[in-house]
Amino acid sequence: MLLLGNIMHKKMINNVSSILPKIKCKSVVSVFIVILLLFSGNAYAQRLKDLASIAGVRSNQLVGYGLVVGLNGTGDQTTQAPFTTQSLKSMLSQFGITVPDNVNPQLKNVAAVSIHAELPAFTKPGQTIDITISSIANSKSLRGGSLLMAPLKGADGKVYAIAQGNVVVGGFGVGADGSSITVNIPSVGRIPNGAMVERGVTSGFMQGNFLTFNLHTPDFTTANRVANVINKSIGEGTAEAVDGSSIKVNAPRDPSQRVAFTSLVENFDITPAEGSAKIVVNSRTGTIIIGQHVRVMPAAITHGSLTVTISAKPVVSQPAPLSDGETVVVPRTELAINEEASPMFLFEPGVSLSDIVRAINEVGATPSDLIAILEALKQSGALKANLLVI
User: pTM for this one?
Assistant: First the structure.
């Protein structure tokens, strides 16, 4: 069985190699890339942890506001960003420094920033997480700046982490006299381990008598296979497929036993079901992804173009000698019509994916032409697949 699978795998690779060189690009801007998912027909087992996640075990989004100081003249223009000055005054007042209301410091080394981070599941107080810093106002660069202590809040308004540290910026800018060069985005930076977790989030892992595995790609066949593998390995009645996305698994209540049980279950090898016949077309990039199970009914396709060329070639008309005439320019228009001769391809019943792609490549179709052909096949009912244009 393994030898047969290897032979089929090599045959598919040879098919891909024979098809791809025939793809033609008529424009540098319009790049035609066809990705053939010929390997979906093979049965490849995957771990359950790669196919599903446990309900209630999730990360949480955090957001905050703060000030980045120490910039080299690339901070906010406080005349256009008054909230930066307000934030600075509020911070200084906490240290007993009062700035008069009629005084607005014109600082170029301070920038107001938003802070966002992701709090992973099971993160405990005292651990650190990475944060991303983004300029809110008109700061040109955060390079060399330091974020002052800022709270990070969750959707419930509670503080879950405190952020502070030196900002690491991947982009850079040079000059400010009209000949500047900017690479990447210097107004966004990161601080690795820049936030200290102050509050943990209770997950639903230990709640109830069972665990629910939610498939990343819902499929009834895959859900049924997951339940069957668990029941066969542990015992009948352990797992139950609730729907095409969720599998409910009975689990022990003791924390240590539940962790060991989850470790066992999530490493079971599952053979996911083959996806439905589908074609995904990205009209902006010309990328076309065609699944292996795509089939067409009997249909004929022709690809041709009618080119009409109109060119104006003015001719100078000279008068006859001693005729008192004037030299004039007489317009002359030439009209040329050229129609390319293209063959017509007939698709027999049950034509496979490779035959479709090979035939369309032979007529030299551009990405826009190929999209039009696929849409026409779908409208005629000959294409037996879901056509998604994104």
Answer: 0.65
